[in-house]
Amino acid sequence: MGRAFVYVILGGGVAAGYAALEFTKKGVSPGELCIISEESVAPYERPALSKGFLLPEAPARLPSFHTCVGLNEERLTTKWYNEHGIELVLGTRVKSVDVKRKNTVNSNWGDDKLQDSCRSYWRSGIEAHSSWFSDLHFSLALKLEEFGVNVLEAENVCYLRDLADASKLVNVMQSCGGGNAVVIGGGYIGMECAASLVINKINVTMVFPEDHCMPRLFTTKIADYYEDYYKGKGVKFVKGTVLTSFEFDSSGKVTAVNLKDGTRVPADLVVVGIGIRPNTSLFEGQLSIEKGGIKVNGKMQASNNSVYAVGDVAAFPVKLFGEIRRLEHVDSARRTARHAVNAIMEPEKTDDFDYLPFFYSRVFGLSWQFYGDNAGEIVHFGDYSGKSFGAYWVKDGLLVGSFLEGGNKEEYEALAKATRLKPSVENLTDLESKGLGFSVEICQKLPPPSSPIVGVKNSTDIVQKPPLHVWHATAGVIFAASVAGIAYWYGRRRRRW
Length: 497
Known about the structure:
24% strand, five-stranded antiparallel beta sheet, 497 residues, alpha/beta, FAD/NAD(P)-binding domain, 13 helices
């Protein structure tokens, strides 16, 4: 007889850890849950890779914040998984998942032990229960080769998607102190890595094709503020152009970056942050795909109801806007993971997922949070020459999105609550003059909330620390496939699917 599990989580990202924690809270028994991860360490808090791991004062990089998740609630170390009877299959890549054959999983774990265990389950006539996957490691960093740029496996060209990437980047940074770094990309990874490089006393040039940084979220006015701040730290920007080729020395290291506009930028280190691609290949042709991800319902359930998808890979209905969205952020990964476990373990008590899209970042001494949707007309407010300012987005006369830099906990809570309520806005000029006061005023008119505000973070934390009363609600890629079913021999009642 092979190994047998009721639940299998594919991928070892953030959502895998939060799902595991939620499973234990819901009473999963030892031996029922397995996590298969290509990485060699247990699931960990990925935001800390760019927000803490790269900083020079980060002392013991392992295991201080990266070999576990749940830093603010319970540290999910490898020991924790063992104590709870959760099987960690690390350093293992999943080769295939056959949904029609009751989620038979084939991996490079030994002599296909997991495949054998699934077959033994089916031979014994046990019904498949549910299928579960996890998270941010089911997204892949886009590589330069995909855009026709050959890096020849240069040792000083780095990405930042996982712990191995971060460790390589740290080693290269330490070898080129005072040197020149070129950051390709002006999004999350580009901005956060550039800040860490500057703090490590490395000269930074950022290169991206758009007119300003963070183009998917920031307005030009918001971006100008951050770009000016970065320039004050010595960062140079080369915008509106792309990388075309590298120059190498005799050892194969990159020495310069050549751009399409003819610019040549010397480089001792290159950091590439040009986006991700959800890794849906295991399920293409088996599950419905939409917006680049696995399409799920409000229970995070895929077109085959034994498969659940969460995190970056999940395209789920956002009730607030009445449409399917695929969101690439850790907050979404955490929350969708928890919701899917609730839907699996307590389906009759679990409503459809009701999520307020939320994004945040911290660089240098700055900290911003965004809620909702950046669609419609834009209204900026606050002092853009100071430390606190923001913006609203108004669509069809309703407030649908909000952004704030430099707020405190109460201000972020007010912003989140007002955005979720989608209040009507009659006069944009009045909204601009009221600024943050508009959200505060909206909230003061309402009775005390019966449920916590989703997505509010304490901007002073390295890995954000929400209060305990909102932690359970607090988020790549993730999907999951359960490799077994309702087993009466487990001696406990389970709902059949």
